[in-house]
C-alpha cells in the first residue's frame, strides 16, 4: 500500500535523483542539447518563501512518485492563489493502479486546505495522461507550444 505525503525538499532531493533521471529519459525533449540539471538552489529559495510544495508517493520507504507545484498569487487574479505543476512523475511499475489519481487527489486536498483556488497540471503531448485528469474533473484549458532556439 502506498503512502502519500507532503515532504520538505531536503528529504526529497536526496532520494529523487534516480526518479528524476527516469522521468527525464522518458519525457524530455531536445535531450541532445538540454541536459537534466535541476537548479536546487532556486527550488530551496521557493520553498523558503512558501511557494514550493512537494507531494510524494512512497512504497514503504521507497520514493516511487512525486508531484511538485509552485504556489503563488496570479498576476491577472491577485485575489487568488494558483498552484502550477512543475513536475509530476510516477514510476512505471505503479501506473496500472490508482496511484497517480491518489497522489493528485492528496495534493489537491492539501492545496485546498492551504487556500489555493486553482491547480494547473501540464502534460507532454507525446506522453499524455489526459484520461486521468479528465477522471479527476480537470478541464483542458490551454495549449503551449515550444521551439528549441539553440544556446548552451
Structure notes:
The structure is a single chain. With 152 residues, this protein is of the alpha+beta class. Helix content is 32%, strand content 26%. It is built from four helices and five strands, in the order E-H-H-E-E-E-H-E-H. It has helices at 9-27, 40-48, 99-113, 130-135; strands spanning 2-7, 52-59, 62-73, 81-90, 118-120. It has a five-stranded mixed beta sheet, sandwiched between helices. Strand 2 (52-59) and strand 3 form a beta hairpin. 16% of the residues are buried. The model has no long low-confidence stretch (mean pLDDT 95).
Entry summary:
This protein has 152 residues and is of the alpha+beta class.
Q: Pick out the low-confidence regions.
A: none
Provide the gyration radius in Å: 16 Å
Strand content: 25-35%
Instruction: Give the fraction of residues assigned to helices.
Output: 25-40%
pLDDT averaged over residues: 95
Following the backbone from N to C, one meets helices and strands in this order, namely: EHHEEEHEH
Q: What is the topology, as strand order, of the major beta sheet? A: 1-2-3-4-5
Decide which structural class fits the backbone: alpha+beta
Q: What is the count of helical runs? A: 4
Number of strands: 5
Biggest β-sheet: count, sense, barrel?
A: 5 strands, mixed
